[in-house]
Amino acid sequence: MTGGNGPVASASDHCAAQVGASFDWVSSVEDGLCWLESQPLTGRTVVMRWRASSRECLATFGLPDASVGSSLHAYGGMPYADLRQGGMALVDGSTGHVVTAAGTTSGDYTYGDLDRYDDELFGVRETDHGDDLVVFGAGSQVPRVLRATSGFLASPRAHAGRVAWLQWEGEVMPWDSSELWVADYASGGQLLAPRRVAGGPAESVVQPCWGSGGWLYFMSDRSGWWNLHRWRDGCTEAVAPMAAECATAPWESSYTNFVFLSGDRIAMTVQAGPDQQLVVIEPDGTIRNVALPYLSIKPYLAAVGDQVALVGASPTRTSEVALVAMDGSDAVDVIRRGPAVPGDGSSVSVPEVLRVGSGVGEVVVVFYPATPAVADGSSPLIVRPHAGPTYHTELRLDREVQFFTSRGFAVADVDYRGSTGYGRDFRKALDGNWGRYDVEDCSNVAAHLIASGRARPGAVFISGASAGGYTALRAVSVDGPFALAVARSAIVDPHRWKTTAPRFQRPHAAILASATSRVDAEQVSRPVLLLHGMDDRVAPVDDVLALAAALEERGLLAGLMRFDGVGHYLSADAERSALDAELAAYRRVLRQAGITTSV
Description:
Elements (H helix, E strand, L loop, with lengths): L7 E4 L11 E7 L2 E8 L4 E8 L4 E7 L17 E3 L5 E4 L6 E3 L2 E2 L5 E8 L2 E8 L2 E7 L7 E6 L2 E8 L2 E7 L9 E7 L7 E9 L4 E6 L5 E5 L6 E6 L2 E4 L19 E4 L3 E8 L2 E7 L5 E4 L5 E2 L4 E3 L2 E8 L2 E9 L6 E6 L14 E7 L2 E8 L10 E7 L13 H7 L4 E6 L8 H5 L8 H15 L3 E11 L1 H9 L9 E4 L5 H7 L5 H7 L15 E6 L7 H13 L3 E7 L8 H21 L7
Parallel strand pairs: 33-34, 33-35, 35-36, 36-37, 37-38
Antiparallel strand pairs: 1-5, 2-3, 3-4, 4-5, 6-7, 7-8, 8-9, 10-11, 11-12, 12-13, 14-15, 15-16, 16-17, 18-19, 19-20, 20-21, 22-23, 23-24, 24-25, 26-28, 27-28, 28-29, 29-30, 31-32, 32-34
């Protein structure tokens, strides 16, 4: 155990997670696995270590007064690394500094993307002015800068005398344009002869990883889909081309959607719409689907011998850390369970995936019926545009969804134009059209569900968080089917957001926005409930407060809840209060319309 200001390890003799716990950043270590785990009872996030030989959670690595976590590029990068000389390097979530037994880094930097190579520790650090690719020598807390840029750096990976990394300019997002670079490197030295090997203005490259034979593997969307490729000495080739996304949009750095197995095999996630699967790529290129009880797999795969560790979930199964056998049996060994499904699980609303015409094509909807169902099948409906907006609906057990379906509401999660999981063209369709195409798609979904008898006219609402909150606000600023909008941690003015958003996301606002993107209180025609953390550094609270005042003057403010000490993501207590307020707002509208729910 390390005392003082360094990481603290404590024994853990069980592997049952606390209720509300979440799992992220799974990685393989010499004797098993590590992962990041939030612990609601303590309010902290720690690194759990699991030993394969004894099948025990061997230790918990944490910080005395803070959570482990990185806010590199606002959303994070790998926040820990297992050190060869023993112990852990952890990123302090409150300061952004790297903490080891040797001490703590100094300066006004935010660290992340940690990765050990022999006795050295690579990482990326950020300031308001740019990024540095850095390396720590054994036992040192004073990093050496290997590369600096006013743009962005990510995912340093060293192997056999070479280092690979990603970089992109400050005016673009990495899912639009990024580059993969390689340089020669000797321990204790500098990067020599750097050269770009993939990527460019119209290509997104993510997740570099060195494989056998000197091949450098990576995901590229040069085909229109994020597919696996490999490069060696000027030669680049596709490994498993397919019309599906094999990488997750890089909101955080160091995602891992593929891992290497014995016998030159590769395990990889594949996403088609909201559905995610695990496949094995055989040496001859044959692709085999792995039968899993999961439809949602987080982008943190790790290899343990001939098994793949992952964090999986489904609409009826909470998240869990599991090992999946790659011997053809597809056996699943759960090593860390999330909170149990309430009751016996019989009241869980199981979704149906629908396709609805909108624009010149179709959008995918994950539709959850109310439980218990209304006799005529027509329920009050909540339409939910996902956050991002460069993301997708997840097929996992969502307690917010179940909160509403168990109270007589149907819920429709919409993968509107701009969502991931449908290729580059669909992802780019929202550029310059934010607040238009997403609103049109959500409105068309609501109209379809009303016409098909699944939703009750006059009892249709729209609710979203962050970018989804913006879509909800814009949806009640035009003619449409929505009786009320709920906007949590919402963006109000994309143009102002170009200057107030975190450095990483400012280009996002510029790319998405149009001349008419701002939410104008004078155009809002339906009541709005606003929910916002007062410490939100992603979506400015001042914009929301100004909007609330203007809506109140017009009699359209259904409520304003301000959460002190809460940032862009609501705490558990704030989330419970927000859900209660949202439900009360819906019921008020329904009562005024003479509509009662079943619960």
